[in-house]
Amino acid sequence: MGLLEGRTAVITGGAQGLGFAIAEAFAAQGANVVLGDLDEAAVVRAAESLGIGERAVGMACNVVELAQVEALCERAVSAFGSLDIMVNNAGITRDATMRKMTEEQFDQVIAVHLRGTWNGLKTASGIMREQPGGGSIVNVSSISGKVGMLGQTNYSAAKAGIVGMTKAAAKEVGFKNVRVNAIQPGFINTAMTAAMRQDVIDAKLAEIPMGRAGEPAEVASVVVFLASDMSSYLTGTVTEISGGRHI
Known about the structure:
The structure is a single chain. By secondary structure, this protein is an alpha/beta fold. It has nine helices and seven strands. The chain has helices at 17-28, 40-49, 66-80, 103-128, 144-147, 153-173, 191-194, 198-205, 216-227; strands spanning 8-12, 32-37, 56-60, 85-88, 135-140, 178-185, 238-241. α1 (17-28) crosses α9. The longest helix has 26 residues, at 103-128. The chain is globular and about 50 Å long.
């Protein structure tokens, strides 16, 4: 029996990167998985590639639109009978210094991260609080929300906001056995980080006591813990997955 056997999870931004790594880890632990992503073709392929047949579903979802997030969660309930785990992972970057950043670039990042996370929180907690077993919600923040990063006033603000949102939501729904926690990944090996210049990569690695980047699977394993009964008395927490960077 896996840690998530018989449970149903929704993961936004699930077609690639951390979202897909989390989906793989959930599937390996026995969960039914519903993936949402802007790219419908990619998310359908991602669901199929998990190799768990009808236990995996992929569908288009723009997290900025509440109705689309509601449809994603309703798909989980209609297909599998419950919504036990919600991972608010969808995100974008529009990096630029304040001098060069446009209002549109600022608003896009705030909308996807903050409004998108709120849409997921609102929808999932509304379903979970009516279930006998409650549920677990994991919000994906970033180490950028702890320290602030050059050229990321939009992203750092949004990721910091997710921390405050997590704590406020945890206080609202804890009495219904709905747990809300956040993670803050640091420098993780993904397609986005692989595209960085080597000197930038080297500078970031120099800040990490463990001396290396993290792997998506290492982030996913923490999310499995937060989604499972192993963390049954944790809510409102923020877990850094950073190899000690910025401690």
